[in-house]
Amino acid sequence: MPDFKSRFDGKFLTDTAWNYAAFAVMALTGVILNFFIAARLGIEVLGVFNQIYAVYVITAQFAVFGVHDSAQKHNAEFLDNIEQRDAVSAGAIWISAVFGSVTALGVFLLSGPIGQLAESPAVGQGVALAAPGLLFFAVNKVLMGILNGRRRMKEFAIAQSFRVIVILVSCLAVAALGFPGYVLGVSFTIAEVLLFPGLLVTLRPPVTGFTGTRPVLHWIEKHIRFGAKALTNGFLAESYIRVDIIMLGIFVSDHAVGIYSFAALFIEGLYQIPVVVRTIANPVLVRLLIADDKFEVSRFSRKVALLSLAVFAAAAGLVLVFFPALGPFFPNQLVPQSYPLLMILSAGLVVYSVIIPLDHILLQAGQPGRQSILTTFNVFANAALNLALIPTFGIFGAAVATAISFCLSSLTVNAAAWRWLGFRGGIVFSGTRFEPQGR
Asked: Structural domain tally of the chain?
């Protein structure tokens, strides 16, 4: 095994820079897209689009079935064993194609009831158009997990950027052609279909050569077991940042969801700042945890936590300062109404930004079941707080509930690392011996 000590090195920082550049592209396209929809198509259509997006992201977790996490973790683990690494990758790709196909069909057939639940036929129609993209999303997610595990983060960043640019261009084309707002849902399908061949060319995965061989069959079984335990984590981790939007869709109007989702757009963007660090850190954590080096894990964790907090605080400060200046560009007092929501959500997220880069550490330690338990607790706490506050306080209740849940999650991640990985005092301040326990 190569020396992974002090892996907060030049490559780590270069990979981080590439992925922050990709994040900048993603954030810019997201801002442009949401601004365009609100200004050109109206706040109600913005609410519909964000509900379609929320449904798509959540159901996508069923499509990939946690296999992308297994592909990432085990590609990092077997980075130096090409034969084993290729078998890991081939098995993951085949499983994702199967689960992606089943999920895409299921979501398409259930799009009508989804629209009824949201009390918006447009949401159901948009989900139907996005559903075919779930097949390609599942395979693409695994292919990008392979890139992540192998620390090919430049290609990973380019793929991320390409996806969001295609979504933006597709939405602009839908509006230019005069289609109804729900047709924006097709942009997700178009993006995944176009991304798929690019990832295949980049990785050239040995799919056909390994199909049916014993190593691949072994990894198919192992991926299913790992994915079954990690599925809850993947499903709820993606839901976590959108629980408020989903619950607001049930309790309040599309117009109110549109106001809240405008603030949530910036929060989702800010949330991605520490997520970028987590993506870069995950394969390094795999190697450090395998090496059973408690000191290096803690030292590495402190560095990534401080990096995440510093970048997040700077970005959040800029957003809060310049956000009011957007007021003249949007109708119906959208900016003044959403600004207090943005401030509340940012206050909670700044606390959580410290621990987000490490909040998948149980998964990297080979404990997907316990990772799912942790995420389940965090999401249910978030949902309970939203359920308690939204009926009385509406969109402000959702903001307060979500901010509190961000702070709570910072505590639970540290508690889980202490309890299950032996990091006394939490992941950043441990001094005891690491004893891996597969669960």
From this structure: 1
Nearest to 211 by CA among 64, 97, 81, 87: 87
Backbone Cα Rg of the chain = 21
Inter-residue contact 100 to 252 (CB < 8 Å): no
Contact 193, 133 (CB under 8 A): yes
Q: Is residue 435 part of a domain?
A: no
Residues ≥6 apart with Cβ < 8 Å to 347: 403
How far apart are alpha carbons 243 and 211 in whole angstroms?
39
Concatenated DSSP letters of 39-75: III-HHHHHHHHHHHHHHHHHHHHHHTTHHHHHHHHH
Residue 2 DSSP symbol: -
Query: Structure tokens of 92?
Result: 């993951």
Report in angstroms the alpha-carbon separations of 198 from 90, 143, 151, 243: 17, 10, 18, 32
Nearest to 234 by CA among 171, 141, 115: 141
Please check whether residue 339 lies inside any domain of the structure: yes
* Structural domain harbouring 63: 10-421
Four-point Cα dihedral 136, 137, 139, 142, nearest 10 = 170
The distance from CA 262 to its chain's CA centroid, rounded to whole angstroms, is 19
Q: How far apart (Å, rounded) are the C-alpha atoms in residues 297 and 167?
A: 38
Residue 426 belongs to some domain of the structure: no
Per residue in 169-202, pLDDT (tens digit) is 999 999 999 899 899 999 999 999 999 999 999 9
What pTM, to 2 d.p., does this model score?
Answer: 0.83
Q: How many CB atoms lie within 10 A of CB 424?
A: 13
Helical (H) or strand (E) element with 9: none
**Angle at CA of residue 245, ends 128 and 308, nearest 5°:** 110
Place of tokens 């049930």: 250
Whether 296 is in a domain gets the answer yes
Give per-residue pLDDT as tens, 390-434. Answer: 999 999 999 999 999 999 999 999 999 989 998 888 887 665 444
Question: CA 163, CA 172: separation in Å to the nearest integer?
Answer: 15
* Residue with the two structure tokens 């190569």: 2
